[in-house]
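Figure 6 in text form: structure in, sequence out.
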């Protein structure tokens, strides 16, 4: 599950979210490997009963994650020392029964895991530099309201996206390998 410019708590404005959350809950209960990025991580947090709400400040730009001990030992170890893209205004409380994997100064819950089959990432490692322009166009109102420096965002994407994408490939492959290993052991 990927992101979007809405809040997962805006079910009254976007009624389809109710079905989305029900589908995610069913997948998690059935043990289907599930990964959520950005809005997808917020959806997972909501499914696990955590509060999702507007953060005190929007997080928009490239930054390194602070990995927990569990985060460094997890597939997120692939992003240690790598700047990844934050593009969110919402945050969530850490769901009960999950493990915090990463944080930033602005957002304490950047990533969590629920066993080996559920991974939630508030940040982005899947955005190739060539796609940044579409994001800038698609989110023009949000960026204007945030007074974002588009030239800096383009330059930062050129500078940081290649390493983030490479680390992202490793992160996702390591996560899938972990699922395969846990299934084989079961």
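Output sequence:
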């Amino acid at each position: 599950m990927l992101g979007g410019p809405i809040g997962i708590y805006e079910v009254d404005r976007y009624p389809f979210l109710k079905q989305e959350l029900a589908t995610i809950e069913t997948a998690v209960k059935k043990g289907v490997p599930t990964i959520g990025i950005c809005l997808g991580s917020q959806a997972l947090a909501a499914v696990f009963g955590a509060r999702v709400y507007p953060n005190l400040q929007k997080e928009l730009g490239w930054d390194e994650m602070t990995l927990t001990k569990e985060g460094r030992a997890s597939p997120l170890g692939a992003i240690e020392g790598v700047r990844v893209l934050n593009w969110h205004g919402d945050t969530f409380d850490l769901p009960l029964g999950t493990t915090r994997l990463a944080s930033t100064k602005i957002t304490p819950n950047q990533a969590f895991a629920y066993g080996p089959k559920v991974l939630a990432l508030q940040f982005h490692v899947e955005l190739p530099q060539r796609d940044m322009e579409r994001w800038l166009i698609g989110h023009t109102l949000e960026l204007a309201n945030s007074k974002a420096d588009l030239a800096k965002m383009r330059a930062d994407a050129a500078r940081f996206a290649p390493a983030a994408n490479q680390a992202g490939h490793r992160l996702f492959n390591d996560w899938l390998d972990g699922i395969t290993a846990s299934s084989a052991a079961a």
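Caption detail: Residues 31 and 117 are 7 Å apart (CA to CA).
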